[in-house]
Amino acid sequence: MSLRTRPIATLLLVAAAGATVACGSPTDQSLAGPAHATVTGRVTSPTGAPVVATPVEIACAGGSAALQVTTDSAGRYIVNLVTGAEPFSGRSGQLLCHFTEPGTISPRAEADTALTFARGTILVIQQIVDLQES
């Protein structure tokens, strides 16, 4: 089973129109509460062809429920992940996540990787996790 994992963290600035938060206040969402990460990737066959309309299951540590997305006509997927309330302290942190393309008897492709999550309304962490079937 071959897998290609590219945990590339790219910070994207998102305009938060009219959002004001007092630093250090009890409601400061950049220091407490759920954190977010955006993950995109592609599922390919052993020959490199895209695997269309296949499920990708993602389970991360930190109290969030596992979820499933489906690849598009190019074998790509994109998902926004949200952690539980307090998976780590501070503005950002890493959590171990398990990516699986399930098969009938065993997974056709899978990968474990640490993803970076961030709190607040300004940063969105985008990472790439590609899966290749064996």
Main structural class? mainly beta
Task: Report how far apart the termini are.
Answer: 4 Å
Q: Output the number of helix runs.
A: 0
Taking pLDDT < 50 over at least 5 consecutive residues as the criterion, the unreliable ranges are 1-25
What sequence of helices (H) and strands (E) makes up the elements?
EEEEEEEE
User: Largest sheet, if any?
Assistant: 4 strands, mixed
Number of strands: 8
Description:
This protein is mainly beta and 134 residues long. Helix content is 0%, strand content 50%. The protein has no helices and eight strands. It has strands spanning 3-13, 36-44, 55-60, 67-70, 76-82, 92-101, 109-118, 123-132. A four-stranded mixed β-sheet has the order 1-8-2-5, with no helix packed on it. The chain has a four-stranded antiparallel β-sheet with strand order 4-3-6-7, with no helix packed on it. Residues 1-25 have low confidence and may be disordered.
